[in-house]
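Pipeline run #58 for the internal structure catalog. This entry was flagged by the ingest filter as a single-chain record with no existing model, so it goes straight to prediction. Upstream metadata was stripped on purpose; only the residue string is passed forward. Reviewer on rotation: M.T. Logging verbosity set to normal.
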Amino acid sequence: GVTGRLATMISTRGCPYLCTFCDVPYKKYRKRSTEKVVDEIEECLAQGYTEFHFYDDLFNITPESIITFCEEVEKRRLKIVWDFRGRVNGVSEESLIRAKKAGLRQISFGVETGSDEGLKHLKKGSKTAKYREVFGWCRELGIRTVADFIIGFPFEKTPEDVRENIGYLIELDPDF
């Protein structure tokens, strides 16, 4: 956090994706009600917390889930700063616009690798073009980005493969 008044929250458990390197033991995705999550945020606000980090295995299962959360925050007129860990295929430009308006500061994306072939090996369910698009939207909206990246996968067979992977990461231009 940036203020020292950070609360860590969990609104969901598990992740239905089957990424080959993942250590999340729960493949069934279970979601708490949005109302109960925002109730908990209100309790934390009453205790002086102003920032919220969602440490879910996958906060943004769909763009609609982000919008639903933002609607509840806006309905209650809460002024919060928040961030989450998520996937690029679980956001849309509209959901990011709504999230920024509702106080979203940062998203940590699991990028992992910079080639479509590598993403296919990892069973990420996304393409490099989608990462470029989403990182571009975040930059335009002023949402900070974290790119979690892994170098040295078995399919990176040459120094050139590694350089291309690093080049893609540089091209994405994440904040962290």
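catalog note: Strands lie at 6-9, 12-13, 30-31, 51-54, 81-86, 104-112, 144-149.
catalog note: The longest helix spans residues 128-141.
status: ready for reviewer M.T.
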